[in-house]
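Anyone have tokens for Undecaprenyl-diphosphatase? Sequence:
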Amino acid sequence: MGLIEWFKVVVLGIVEGITEWLPISSTGHLILVGDLLKLNVSDAFMEMFNVVIQLGAIMAVVVLYFSQLWPFHTMKTAPARSCFAHPVEDGAAGKFQRFANHYLHMDKIVMWLKIAVSCIPGLLIGLPLDDWLEEHMHRTVPVAVMLIVYGVLFLLVENHNRGRKPRISRISQITWKDALIIGFFQALAIVPGTSRSGATIIGGILIGMSRTLAAEYTFYLAVPTMLGASAIKLLKFGLHFTGVEVSVLIIGMVVAFAVSILAIKFLMSYIKRHDFKVFGWYRIVLGALVIGLFAAGILKG
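Reply: yep, here.
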């Protein structure tokens, strides 16, 4: 691969790092930018790359939110009081409670269990439809349509939410039902152009989450979701990579990681003072532009 090809890989990493966390669809942007740049790799590798590159972005969440995500501690750092409302001394329950008090942040364990519940709808809906979606929806026009549809939804949701006080402002206030509902919203993002972060943020706001919490929960939920999606894509592609393909993946993920750090910090700072309408308008304008370029024959369908 020549220097231009490696420049294209860096550009795709930058696009992933920015769009994975802003609610504007990372997969949709990678498909559109990939059509314009034409990276010199096979179609099968490109489909896998568009998903697996997201592992770099996921690592940014792990680094930035490690203290909120890591559910273990040592006996030296264990809290003085039991984390259980009704401590038990004897039997298996007592042994478990002592182990949990010594080594586990139970609030974070519960958070991860709720995140697991949020993953279930996407797993049940996404797996059976994965091949069909790759064949029919990983195209320019469907991506553009979904950009516009969810752009409009962002505007409608923000108008609906104007002046309303959120009922959920902390992770601990998320119920099991809330987690499942957010999971169904995330499942909508199996269609390219939707935006996984966009769908879950919309869902979170609609059920009463604050914007900040909806964004943070979206970040946390991305970790198991994208690890699972990447594993599936890698298995489907096969683990027979050329040296060039390995290099393309690594460079793309490293760039995506670095840019994601900045994108996450920007988004969390931005939503403390603004709503999501700007992203809705961006999606609508971009979707309309893409459809126009397709109609003019500049982009393929």
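The chain has a mean pLDDT of 90.
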